[in-house]
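INFO batch 0412 | record 1 of 1 | parsing
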Amino acid sequence: MARRCELTGTGVLVGNTVSHALNRHRRRFLPNLINVTLISDALQRPIKLRITAAALRTVEHRGGLDAFLIKQDDADLSPLALGIKKEVRAALAG
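INFO prediction complete | emitting tokens
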């Protein structure tokens, strides 16, 4: 299973651990992924996602999953989130 947020697409970053003596060695910065079930008001069903804690805070700040997807730019969303966004737009339009 990939370590990638299913909403924002945030993945693993790489960098250096630097000691006090400035010795450097490579390390991985893993995203803080959590399994959540978000309710879509437009689709009237729960959606299970594996997202970062930061993405969850953003979803709650924007007023729920539907509002987050509508406001978020398509270039910033993962392919799974784009599919859900398309379903939400169809449900809200019809």
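INFO post-check: The first helix runs from residue 53 to 62.
INFO record closed
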